[in-house]
Amino acid sequence: MGVAVELAAAAQPLLPLRIRAVEFQDPMVVVMGERWSLALLGPWAWTRASTVEVDWRDDDAEHRVWDLCGMDVLGVVPGTAEPAVSFRLSDGSSLSALPDDTTYEQWTFRHHDLAVVFVGSR
For the whole prediction, is pTM greater than 0.90? Predict the structure, then answer.
């Protein structure tokens, strides 16, 4: 069982999780809420119906990611290849960590109520 599958099971009883703040440091984006955080350390994309809203390569990513504030994370969807994972959002979009061979750790998820920090790595 992959770490994204484990995260999906562990996070389910904690959902929804409200995004209250966002930080961007190219290429990393961190979304945070009360007692939890998600850091996407490598390539990531914010998509809606298979259309990319913004990703780590966009020149205006630093400003666009603020639109995540106020949304809720409703689900965790493991990707087809580790360590890919998507976080389903309340507006119907998804924030996803994408597979990458250049970054060892691609994402981390922390919640105060969980005994472990989940790390998606290749």
Answer: yes
